[in-house]
Design brief:
The chain has 2 domains: 16-265, Phosphoenolpyruvate-binding domains (TIM Barrel); 282-315, no CATH class. 47% of the residues lie in helices and 11% in strands. It has helices at residues 16-24, 39-48, 57-65, 75-87, 105-117, 145-166, 180-184, 186-198, 212-222, 242-248, 258-277, 288-294, 297-306, and strands at 31-36, 53-55, 94-97, 122-125, 173-178, 203-206, 227-230, 252-255. The chain has an 8-stranded parallel beta barrel, surrounded by 9 helices. α4 (75-87) packs parallel to α5 (105-117) and α5 (105-117) packs across α6 (145-166). Keywords: Hydrolase. It catalyses: (2S,3R)-3-hydroxybutane-1,2,3-tricarboxylate = pyruvate + succinate.
């Protein structure tokens, strides 16, 4: 990297947001994102070879606070976690939940700028009230349409300011999410998304469609604008495979609960066995070194060697 921010061939490096935009606009392609919430789950997803990751707000609340997704996490909780995950592999873009933006326009601006500074490729803002809840729980309340659009405008202005200061490095993909379907009906939800796209959002996100026809309609209405599908097992949306979601017209699909639910089940089985027998059966080939290799052990060793160190030569 040269002092002018260019690479040796004279071109600016692709940012995480630029890579995400490329994925979202590939023909006949859907980007499937596993829901991660900490360094371990992110490393597992990266090892599996996913093109894009999604940081779940529910998983962040559960892992950092041990609390349900009821609007208890703060911007600092989310931005810090997102920046850590984004840093693990700068070549793989991260989409992160940003809930309601955590306050009014000034706070939303701060949230967007913090996510950009942390290397996050995309975020979604929603129209629930500040004391929100998981999108697949009942009893959601949403703000009025003008308040929602003011949130999107604040995010767009914050991005413009960062682009002015940082160029392409100040970019982020803005995803407008509406939870109005449950409270106000399908037409109101579509209208909110239309207004959000006109205000500068890049992606439309209808939370909680209850049938495949609603999925098809929202994708058709906004094409060629990318539309995101949130797939939550046991939620209100019918289960679709990646190919089925692509056929419906979606360009990106997030699975926020895939890691959380797997951890709940597998860890529950392990501790039950430990409680019952006083011992744990580990799969063949499992060792501390295997686990640390997942977490970047070899890269750490190589860096130490490059600077002339020998601290980890016998690890």
């Amino acid at each position: 990297m040269y002092g002018n921010g260019k690479t040796a061939n004279g071109l600016a490096p692709r940012t995480a947001a630029a890579r995400l935009r490329e994925l979202l606009h590939q023909d006949d392609h859907i980007t499937v994102c596993p829901g991660v919430y900490d360094g371990i789950t992110a490393r597992i997803a990266l090892q599996a070879g996913f093109d894009c990751l999604y940081m779940t707000g529910a998983g962040t609340a559960a892992s950092r606070l041990g609390m349900p997704d009821l609007g208890v996490v703060t911007m600092n909780d989310m931005a810090t976690n997102a920046a850590m995950i984004a840093s693990l592999d700068r070549t793989v873009p991260l989409i992160a939940d940003a809930d309601t933006g955590y306050g009014g326009p000034l706070m939303i601006s701060r949230t967007v700028k913090s996510y950009i500074a942390g290397g996050v490729a995309g975020l979604h803002l929603e129209d629930q009230v500040v004391s929100k809840r998981c999108g697949h729980l009942l009893g959601k309340e949403v703000v009025d349409q003008e308040t929602f659009i003011s949130r999107i405008r604040a995010a767009v202005i914050a991005r413009e300011e960062m682009r002015k200061d940082l160029g392409d490095a100040g970019d982020i993909v803005l995803i407008a999410r509406t939870d109005a379907l449950q409270a106000n009906g399908f037409e109101d939800a579509l209208q909110r998304l239309q207004e959000a796209i006109e205000a500068g959002a890049d992606v439309a996100f209808l939370e909680g469609p209850t049938n495949v026809e609603q999925c098809r309609i929202v994708c058709q209405k906004f094409a060629p604008i990318p539309v995101l599908l949130n797939m939550v097992p046991g939620g209100v949306t019918p289960t679709l495979t990646g190919n089925e979601a692509k056929e419906a017209g979606f360009k990106v699909m997030i699975h926020p609960g895939c890691m959380s639910f797997a951890v709940q089940q597998s860890c529950g089985e392990v501790v039950s066995e430990l409680k019952k027998t006083g011992a744990v059966k580990t799969p063949p080939g499992t060792s501390p070194r295997d686990f640390f290799t997942l977490c970047g052990l070899q890269e750490c060793i190589e860096l130490d060697k490059r600077v002339g160190g020998k601290a980890y030569s016998s690890v």
